[in-house]
Amino acid sequence: MIDLKSLHSLLRCPGCATPELIIGALTGDLVCRSCANRYPVSDGRPVMLTADNDVFRQDDYRNAVIVDTHAEGFDWQRLIPNPSVNLASERVLGRLRELLESLPSAVVLVVGGGQQRKWLDQRLGAGDSIQLVYSDIDVSADVDLFCDGHDLPFIDAAFDAVVTTAVLEHVLYPERVAAEIVRVLKMDGILYSELPFIQQVHEGAYDFTRYTLSGHRRIFNGVRELESGMVAGPGTALVWAIENFALAFIVRPSLRNIVKAAVRIVFGWIKYFDLLLADKPAAMDGASCTYLLGRKIDGRVPDVEIVANYVGAKYLKHS
Fold first, then answer.
1. 271 in helix, strand or coil?
2. By three-state DSSP, how is residue 43 classified?
3. What are 196-239's pLDDT values in tens digits?
4. The CATH number of 76-308 is which of 3.40.50.150, 3.40.50.300, 2.170.120.12, 3.40.1390.10?
5. β strands within the chain, DSSP E
6. What residues does 132 pair with on adjacent strands?
7. Model confidence at 276: pLDDT above 90
8. CA neighbours closer than 13 Å in the CB half-sphere of residue 90
9. CB 288, CB 231: distance < 8 Å
10. Are strands 130-136 and 289-296 parallel, antiparallel or unpaired?
11. pLDDT score at 229
């Protein structure tokens, strides 16, 4: 975990967007010398939320505790099969690591870090030359700071790379969050993003938006694509659909868990069709989730180029 003093040089006030933050001598809170906004620090982790944020309140984070979802002890939910396969993450994160290792040193921001620290540190080789900064709005997340993605509390061009997986579907204004992610990237900095396309609601009231691969490219049009594709395909999408069809008849939480487990056990084999469809362009039209790896550019990718790069089988041309 990065210490507050190291993190301090990367921060700016989310209220007035100036880097005039000082560490209070008595309280240890962060205080903006420009607008006087105060940001509490919870167990060494700054709570970079303005006091007028009516969705996420500072007070809810003052005694935040990390909830380890992988703690020892029996958890029956671990017996429920995963409804999806992952066709890309391990390989593409390996490529990202190689790109970062070509730099003398690299600082990587993880937006929506959740409980990813243990496996992502290992996957990206976090250590002396690669440092990861984890952020999230979830009060129980294992992160270095809490913040709202709509107003990332970092100076411009602070990071060599940003990793964000399954985040933009959960924010109120995804284009604003995407713009913030691109803003904090250095020029030629690397973005790795995963976004769902055909998936049902999985975060209740905090679940808003879905994206095709073309939509994924458009929302990050400040990034020049290195590669893109499916994280999970139509097989996974079908398992999600069957599961949520069954759950549509059930309200009680305990019964929903039983139904969910039963559907995944009986129908989970369908997801492995994604392995056969991984290189089929037509499968992209029914993908469950897509990824984008790219570099920040000066400007944006033209809309006409995004349209021209469509991958799929449903051809439609306006001419």
1. helix
2. coil
3. 999 999 999 999 999 999 999 999 999 999 999 999 999 999 99
4. 3.40.50.150
5. 21-23, 30-32, 38-39, 41-42, 45-48, 106-111, 130-136, 145-147, 159-165, 185-196, 223-232, 289-296
6. 108
7. yes
8. 3
9. yes
10. unpaired
11. 97
CB 181 within 8 A of CB 166: no
DSSP 201-269: --SGGG------HHHHHHHTTTEEEEEEEEEE-HHHHHHHHHHHHHHTT--SHHHHHHHHHHHHHHHGG
- The strand pairing partners of 21, in sequence order, are 32
Structure tokens at 34: 């420009």
CATH 2.20.25.10 holds for 4-61: yes
CA–CA separation, 215 and 312 (whole Å): 13
According to the model, what pLDDT value does residue 74 have? Answer: 47
Q: How long, in residues, is the chain?
A: 319
Distance separating alpha carbons of residues 66 and 184, to the nearest angstrom = 26
Amino acid 97 reads: R
Which pTM does this prediction carry?
Answer: 0.94
Tell me which of 319 and 211 has the higher pLDDT.
211
Sign of CA dihedral 52, 57, 59, 61: negative
- Section 287-303 average pLDDT: 98
Percentage with pLDDT > 90 across the chain: 82
Cβ–Cβ < 8 Å for 194, 235: no
Enter the tokens of residue 1. Answer: 């975990």
Which amino acid, residue 301? V
Kindly tell me if the per-residue pLDDT of 71 is higher than 90.
no
Domain ranges for the chain, please list them.
Answer: 4-61, 76-308
Q: Tell me if 66 sits within 8 A of 144, measured CB to CB.
A: no
Report the b/e string of 214-227 with b at 16+ CB within 10 A: bbbbbbbbbbbbbe
Two tokens at 127? 């250590």
Q: Regarding predicted confidence, which is higher, 100 or 54?
A: 100
